[in-house]
Amino acid sequence: YPKKLDEDNFRITDETCAIHRCSNSWMSERERKRGNSKLWINVGRPIFRTARNALVKVMGKERARKIEVKTRNKMR
After folding, report:
1. Which tens digit of pLDDT belongs to each residue from 12-62?
2. Interhelix angle for 45-59 vs 61-75, to 10°?
3. Which of 71 and 12 is assigned the larger pLDDT?
4. Which of 18, 38, 35 is nearest to 26 (CA)?
């Protein structure tokens, strides 16, 4: 796979076998910005992962998933 040098440039060699560039067109502008936010990556995402794992242990996978979906819908 190519090595990403910066936002628009990739290192492509003869050994490069595949490349897929995704614009995340199905995501809203807010979702794309949040996905790139250092605060979200370093704080928000780990908090939600820890909370989800705790819910799975306490309530089970199905109920935890329902709560996760409701929470995500409220954050949109």
Report:
1. 777 777 656 777 777 788 777 777 788 888 998 899 899 999 999 999 999
2. 150
3. 71
4. 35
Q: Supply the pTM of this predicted model.
A: 0.50
Residue with tokens 């908090």: 47
- Output the CA–CA distances (angstroms, integers) from residue 36 to 20, 44, 63, 65, in the order listed: 19, 12, 29, 24
Token pair for residue 39? 């605060």
- The ranges assigned to domains in the chain are 3-75
SS3 label, residue 62: helix
DSSP readout, 7-59?
Answer: SS-EE--TT---------TTS-HHHHHHHH-HHIIIIIHHHHHHHHHHHHHHH
What's the pLDDT at 15?
A: 77
